[in-house]
Amino acid sequence: MNDDIRRRLLECPMEIQGRILSASNATLHCSLDEDLAAVYKPQRGERPLWDFPTGTLTGREVASFEIDRALGFGLIPPTAWREDGPAGPGMCQMWVDEDDDARLVDVVAPDAVPSEWIPVLRATDGIGNPVALVHADDERLQAMAVLDAILNNGDRKGGHVITDVDGNVWAVDHGVTLSVEPKLRTVLWGWAGTAIPTQLLTAVESLHGQLMDGAPEIERWLDRYEVDALIDRCASLIKYGTFPVPNEDWPAIPWPVF
Ligand SMILES: Nc1ncnc2c1ncn2[C@@H]1O[C@H](COP(=O)(O)OP(=O)(O)O)[C@@H](O)[C@H]1O
Ligand SMILES: [Mg+2]
């Protein structure tokens, strides 16, 4: 199913329907054929950042998709590179329809944390009321936390965790990933320091093996040092077998959290 969607993302004519105003880059909503819609980020619409080479963010989105695919997690919606996009070359990713009531990450009053959910941070809202950042204790989010550790994801906001109308969980927005510097910044700290479940570690071992053999679909988007750093992050997860803990030298939680 995903391979068919990938093919359609690569081949079908794209029509721009609108711009997502909350986005920091030129992020466009497009229709392709029939029922298929997509997020399209043209490379030339990237907002320059101090810590990433300009023009590389859209390629990092495709690399992240390829890494998720190599892990077998299926968390990142099918994503393709369109050389012939209507606003120039860029990434094109299947649009998923979000079910707002099925969120797995939330900000709630401290006495309203859903049972079985994990509090990550206590803070105060804009008018001084205490709030808690919480996420579900859900194995799909555990896989996402492992994916983010591998991607070195610098921006896993709550809004980048989407539950669709069929109950599937998706991860979006992987432009600021795969740096050689540690930049993990996420709302999914609920398992920090605890053991990674065996089946997730097996997936990391498989990805590590694929990278050691050479994985051109991943490597073509990265420089050599970034590929080496990716391999090192996989090796370190395998060696320690635990979810990462926040790095004192880097803000651990994205702000705003959504
Ligand atoms: N594949 C997708 N399906 C549905 N919504 C998406 C998808 N990708 C992004 N979005 C929505 O669009 C918003 C902006 O996209 P994002 O990837 O965060 O752009 P930017 O790179 O500019 O930060 C996201 O917060 C999310 O709500
Ligand atoms: Mg974003």
Task: Please explain how this structure is put together.
This protein is an alpha+beta fold and 258 residues long. The chain has two domains: 2-99 and 137-240, Transferase(Phosphotransferase), domain 1; 101-136, no CATH class. The chain has six helices and ten strands; from the N terminus they run H-E-E-E-H-E-E-E-E-E-H-E-E-H-H-H. It has helices spanning 2-11, 57-71, 139-151, 198-213, 216-219, 224-240; strands spanning 15-19, 28-31, 37-42, 79-82, 90-94, 105-108, 117-124, 130-136, 161-163, 169-171. The strands form three sheets. The protein has a five-stranded antiparallel sheet, with helices on both faces. It has a three-stranded antiparallel sheet with strand order 6-8-7, with no helix packed on it. It has a two-stranded antiparallel ribbon with strand order 9-10. The radius of gyration is 18 Å and the shape is globular. The mean pLDDT is 96. Magnesium ion binds at residues 23-24, 173.
